[in-house]
Amino acid sequence: MTAPADRALLLLADLGEASARAHTEATLVPAVSAVLARHLPLRRLDLRRGAAAPGAPEIRRGAGGEAIAVFALRDAEGAVGCAAMELGEGAALDLSPALLEALGRLLAVALRQVQVLGRVAAIARRAQGEKRALKEELDRVALPREVVARGPAMRAIFLEMVPLVARQDTTVLVRGETGTGKEVIARRIHALSRRAERPFLAVNCGALPEGLVESALFGHERGAFTGAAARHLGTFERASGGTLLLDEIGELPRAAQAKLLRVLQEGEIERVGGEGAVRVSVRVIAATHRPLEAMVASGAFREDLYYRLQVFPIVVPPLRERPEDLEPLTRVIVEKVAASFGRRPPRVSAEAMARLRAHDWPGNVRELENVIERSMVMSTGDELILSAPLAAAPREAGRAMTYREAAQRCIEDALRASGGKIYGEDGAAAALGLKPTTLQSKMRKLGIRRVDGEKG
């Protein structure tokens, strides 16, 4: 075999290897040009898909006397286009018609290959988009089992409002009475959002110790205060990239409200004792049962923060206004409690359901959960026995109690039941599900005096 023939075979082999690695026409042309430049004094390569080509390869002379090899791109399936190579002096290969035809066949196959790969990639992208759209639609219409939404109000929340707002990073304010399921809505928003794979954190602003609110939310540096032995990352930093639920936002002190406003506006937090801002990317969902408008009017809540939170409000109806959800909710809760107890779910009789329907549910879904769990502890058979009394709290006719009246009555009832005792398992704080210090703080705010003779 002659040396020119060897060089021609080496050129074709290098071209075949380079074209096999190319996946688009944009990467094919540079790869082919680089190979040709190693074997030929190539100045420029022009591949024209669909262009007419001469019947036989030919070498023409350009206006400057340069050699231009023109040949068809044709394979077994037919013509693909035309190629033109502008060459300088000193070609090491004899560009015979046979070699140019071989180049044309190889490049035609390579062009068809990247064309097919392009179609496959387009189909894959379209399929991925359709899959994503289908998943979003399924997520929208197929609610998790723990989410019960039979009535129009709850269906509007879970099937319309939540999927819409979940697509954006808009701040959401979920409002409703205690125990209506505000955290369930927040978790659903997170699950349908682009942040679903990142953290979801929930913090109860009303349960934070008064002097450590800012440290809990925004973190602190070592030595920032007595006992700060190491740097602590607050909930905003730990939730960065994900979603943070600020429950009972109305309980947040005004100093912390100002810092929260900065986070919402600037996307920055500053640790207690820190000297610089820290960037965070957090989707904030706030929740409250408090009348924020009245709190703004009284100065207890910042007006600018209120409007910053009130971008997309969701109002959750109380359980007494959604009677169609009571029976399916009961079934779901019975199954959940039974699973935690490691037993088969007991049957809920028609009589038991009638008693549940007759109740006013001032504590909403949380009260229903407590009633069912307490009843299942007492029910050892196959039927649920509602052993706990379900009498509704008395109300004044013609007027709903204000939040202050309701809170005051609740605390006073708990104090009477505990004989004035606040601390301990049988104290009023435990009965209300509060820390003793939190209860004492609320008593001071509401003007409730300690019972004479109370020892703790």
Automatic annotation (TrEMBL):
<dbReference type="InterPro" id="IPR003593">
    <property type="entry name" value="AAA+_ATPase"/>
</dbReference>
<dbReference type="InterPro" id="IPR025662">
    <property type="entry name" value="Sigma_54_int_dom_ATP-bd_1"/>
</dbReference>
<dbReference type="InterPro" id="IPR027417">
    <property type="entry name" value="P-loop_NTPase"/>
</dbReference>
<dbReference type="GO" id="GO:0005524">
    <property type="term" value="F:ATP binding"/>
</dbReference>
<dbReference type="InterPro" id="IPR025944">
    <property type="entry name" value="Sigma_54_int_dom_CS"/>
</dbReference>
<dbReference type="InterPro" id="IPR058031">
    <property type="entry name" value="AAA_lid_NorR"/>
</dbReference>
<dbReference type="Pfam" id="PF00158">
    <property type="entry name" value="Sigma54_activat"/>
</dbReference>
<keyword id="KW-0547">Nucleotide-binding</keyword>
<keyword id="KW-0804">Transcription</keyword>
<dbReference type="Pfam" id="PF25601">
    <property type="entry name" value="AAA_lid_14"/>
</dbReference>
<dbReference type="GO" id="GO:0003677">
    <property type="term" value="F:DNA binding"/>
</dbReference>
<dbReference type="GO" id="GO:0006355">
    <property type="term" value="P:regulation of DNA-templated transcription"/>
</dbReference>
<dbReference type="InterPro" id="IPR009057">
    <property type="entry name" value="Homeodomain-like_sf"/>
</dbReference>
<keyword id="KW-0067">ATP-binding</keyword>
<protein>
    <submittedName>
        <fullName>Sigma-54 dependent transcriptional regulator</fullName>
    </submittedName>
</protein>
<feature type="domain" description="Sigma-54 factor interaction">
    <location>
        <begin position="147"/>
        <end position="377"/>
    </location>
</feature>
<dbReference type="InterPro" id="IPR025943">
    <property type="entry name" value="Sigma_54_int_dom_ATP-bd_2"/>
</dbReference>
<keyword id="KW-0238">DNA-binding</keyword>
<keyword id="KW-0805">Transcription regulation</keyword>
<dbReference type="InterPro" id="IPR002078">
    <property type="entry name" value="Sigma_54_int"/>
</dbReference>
